[in-house]
Structure formats: C-alpha cells, structure tokens
Amino acid sequence: MKKPPMLKGRSDPVFDLLTKSPHKERLTEYLALLKPLDEQGRYLPFDDLRYRWASGLDSNLCWALVKKARTAQYASLLPLGEPVQWGRFLLTPLAQKAISSVDRRTTTAALEYMSSQIGENAHFSYLLNDLIEDEAISSSQLEGAATTTRVAKDMLKRHRLPRTPDERMVIGNYRMMNFAWEKRNEPLSVELITALHRVGVSGIDDAQYSPGHLRIRDDVVVQDGQGNTVHVPPPAAGLAARLRVLSQWINQSHDDPHRVDHLHPLIKGIALHFALGYEHPFRDGNGRVARALFYWFMFKNDFSAFRYIAISVLLRNAPVKYGRSYLNTEADDLDLTYFIDFQCLVVLRAVSSFTEAYRESLVNAESLDRWLSESGFFERLSGKQRAVYQVARSGMAKVFTAINVKESLGCSYNTASATLNGLVDLALFEKRKLGREWVYFLRVKAN
After folding, report:
1. Which fold has domain 77-355?
2. Do 390 and 364 form a contact (C-beta atoms < 8 A)?
3. Exposure letters 398-425 (e unless 16+ CB within 10 A, then b)
4. Taking the model in full, what pTM does it have?
C-alpha cells in the first residue's frame, strides 16, 4: 500500500490562528467546533451559535471553523438572482428524516393502501376532501386574511360566494391548489407560474395584485412586522429569463441515484418554494404561489397524499420562524440549508398530523360500526348515510348540504339529497332552510 504524500507549504489561515496565543491555549475547545451541526444536531446560524460558544472564545474564529466544516460538505443547488449566485445546501439528519417519512407515507401507493384499509367506510373520502380545504384557508391566513377557519370551511362546503376580500383570498387559494393538481403533468414554465398566480389572485384586488403579470419595476420589497425592509428582490429586468432558467432546472431530471447531482423531490420542491419567494416575481401573492408550486412539484413526482397535507397550517403558527429561515439563508451567502431544514421540520409534523388523522378515522369508523350494530341502526342506514353520520359525530363537519355531500362522496345530487333526508327521517339529523338551500345537521338528542 502506498503511503499518502506529506503535505508541505503553508497551512490553512484558520489553523494558523489556532497555533498562536491566546487561541492555542484553548485549541481543543476550538477544534471541537469543526463540525456543521451543534451538540444537539441542529444546523444553526451564526446569530444563534454565538451565544452557545464557551465564554472567552473568539466568535469570529469559532464561526470560521463551523463554516469550514460546512463548506467541505456543501452541494451546489441552483442559480439565483442577478448577478447569479449559486444556492448551496447540506443534507442534514433532519432532512433525511423528512425524506424517509415522505417516501413511506405520502406516495400515491401509500394513499391507495390507506384507502383500501378503510374499506367500505366512505367517510374517509369526506375526510380527504375536508383536508384539501385546510391548505387554502391556512395559506390565506398566513398572508393576513382575517377569516376564521370555521367561516371559511362553511363557505367552501356550501359553495357560498365570498363576501369580503379575505374570503376571496381563501377562494383564490382553493382554486390555485386545485389548479396545481390539474397541471401536475405539465412542465414548469413562466406561463404556468403566471397562470397559477392569475387563478389564485384574480378578483381580490386586481389593481394591487396585477393577476398573472410579472412585476416590471423595482418598487417591491419584503418588510417585517415593524415595517423594516428585510429583502430586496433581484431586479425586474431579466426576471422572465431567470424564471426560464429556474424552469429548466426544475424540468431537468435529478432522479438517478448514481449521478452526483441526484436530488430527492422533497429537497428540490423546497428549493423551488425558496426561489419563488427570493425572486418575488409578482407585486403581491408571491408566498401563496411559492407554496402552491411546492405542492405542484410534489404532485408531479407522485406524492399524491400532499393533496391532503397542509403545511401552511404549521407555517401560520410560526410565521416568524418561517420568515427567519428565508433571512438566515440570504444572510449566509444563500446557504439554503436553513430554509430546507425548517421546511423539512414542518413537513415532518404535517405528515404526522395527516397519518394521525387517518388512524383516528379508522378507530372512529370501527367505534361507530359497533354503536350502529348495538343500537339497531346499522341495517337501516346505507353506506353513504353511515359515512355522513360518522363525519357529523366526529365533529369533522357540523353542517351538510346536498352539494357538498355529492362532492365529498362522489355521488349524484339526488343520491346526496336522499342520503340526508333519510337521516332526517330516522331522527338522526335535522334540517333547516337557509336562503334557498336546505342545510342538515346532527340532531342534538341523537346519540
């Protein structure tokens, strides 16, 4: 075996500093920092790490050691901005956990297995349709819509026309998510990005949003809650060309595990989410389009369960951390690891919530079947009536109409109407005329 060559010449400047006083007296402490993660396995920015280093250590030297360890493991991801700067990232243990969870629980095959386990309990399809609404509502609330979840759910289920700009925002997001699903087999293009924006924001305030039109002036900035400018997007000049480059990168295959440029779709979709937010191609509505494009990419790569997984529910509950993940990336030479790790944490929690909802659905279905058998109602109810009654008892929905039952259970309007009226005849439901439509709800005394 040939011995490795002896290294000659000047050593690295960072290590040169460690050989000089006063640093050499604490050499062991400094060298312990030569790793990308902290002691708890977290990928933290300088602003967080500097409070965790031992007293008396030179914070600049500590950071130089952390960055050296990270730089050695960086992979280039995608070009961003003008002048072009390459976004880089490091695949952390957290990201690997998220990838594993997504692969096991969110593929089309996994969703089909869940549905088969439910069997004849058709209320699961009602649950899935209910979950589709969650992302549209929470994404709107994340952007400032004041509509409550309960009111927004009622509007979507009853197909009520929106009464306020906030409700129009919810409807727009709902349409945009469905549009992303419908267009999942198309390649990314500037035209698809602008069409998504047009579907999502048309009719809210067209003067403010300019639906479907890229910004043409450099008068758009991102501000924090105190009105401070925290991000100035790249110039409007060349915006369409940069989006075409982004589209080419997204449309390029990175699936081959034997290639050095292999990327899991989750990481690539999160990078797309970041790129749209960074470029800020529209006057308003950029966050909604960025999140919708993440979903579009996951749909495109056969992760169908993401249609029912609402990441914005969790982003809405942590808007400061969401914004900071953008800022940390931009402040650290476009190290996208901060943004990727935060989104992976959100995805992990969202997938767990979806899985738990499925498990609860199974338990509730079995419990209801036992009650129906013991009470003598089982043979008197059709499968669809059992599904609707299960949904009502679980509290998943409180008000029903023939239209939303038709859509949720995939049946005709007449069948949906007969299903609801049959529950009224059995004294399990009540109904009331609201405007020109009948609404149905669980009878208070029904057990």
Report:
1. Fic-like fold (1.10.3290)
2. yes
3. ebbbbebbbbbbebeeebbbbbbebbee
4. 0.86
